[in-house]
Design brief:
The protein is of the alpha+beta class. The protein contains five helices and eleven strands, in the order E-E-E-E-H-E-E-E-H-H-E-E-H-H-E-E. The protein has helices spanning about 45-55, 90-95, 100-110, 130-140, 145-160, and strands at about 1-5, 10-15, 25-30, 30-40, 60-65, 70-75, 80, 115-120, 125-130, 160-165, 175-180. The strands form two sheets. Strands 1-5-6-4-3-2-7 form a seven-stranded mixed sheet, covered by helices on one side. It has a four-stranded antiparallel sheet with strand order 8-9-11-10. Strand 3 and strand 4 (about 30-40) form a beta hairpin. The chain is elongated. About 15% of the residues are buried. The mean pLDDT is about 85.
Length: about 180
């Protein structure tokens, strides 16, 4: 078992992922490890058991780390690379490269944004979605910051793929109704 002073925390990326997102790794003896599981302080035996079980495979190199508030199990991952900001595309460019028609298809499909008739005051607005629900979906789907999800929502409006139901608002993360032009 190692403690925090024996390892170096290191930003890392997995180049095989769909969109490389920086993760926290640890560097130990010139090898990068990613976190597999964490355990509360009262579950030391469980952490040790997992580490022992994984260590039975000679191809797997695992470490157990004692941190101030928990135990964590880390495994070496040869695919991980040290994070270098020049390796990751700026988020604005990533948003600009998203295929909007494919995005709309995914949003309207099963597992997409909840599209339904909604009531505000005495008016029913058919087949629309909430700006807040769309923002949450974009954040989860593309690992975006909320501000970037709002920019992407505004891009859908600018490209005439959706609009505010009364055309009174730009895209906002809130209780605002938006509709795809396909649903008119």
């Amino acid at each position: 078992m190692l403690n925090e002073s024996q390892v170096q925390f290191q930003d890392a990326i997995d180049p095989d992922s769909d969109r490389p997102i920086p993760i926290i790794g640890i560097l130990y003896q010139d090898r990068l490890f990613k976190q597999l599981k964490s355990f509360p302080k009262d579950k030391l035996e469980s952490a040790q058991q997992l580490t022992r079980q994984l260590s039975l495979d000679p191809k797997v190199l695992c470490l157990m780390l004692e941190e101030s508030d928990k135990y964590t199990v880390w495994c070496q991952d040869a695919k991980l690379k040290s994070y270098d900001a020049s390796q990751v595309e700026p988020i604005d460019n990533a948003i600009d490269k998203i295929d909007l028609k494919e995005l709309v298809r995914q949003m309207r499909d099963i597992g997409g944004v909840k599209i339904k008739d909604r009531r505000y005051r005495l008016t029913v607005y058919p087949r629309c979605m909430l700006g807040s629900e769309m923002t949450t979906w974009l954040v989860r789907k593309f690992f975006l910051a909320e501000a970037d999800a709002v920019k992407l929502g505004q891009r859908l409006i600018d490209e005439k793929l959706m609009h505010h139901v009364t055309d009174a608002h730009p895209f906002e993360d809130g209780f605002f109704f938006y509709r795809f032009y396909w649903d008119e």
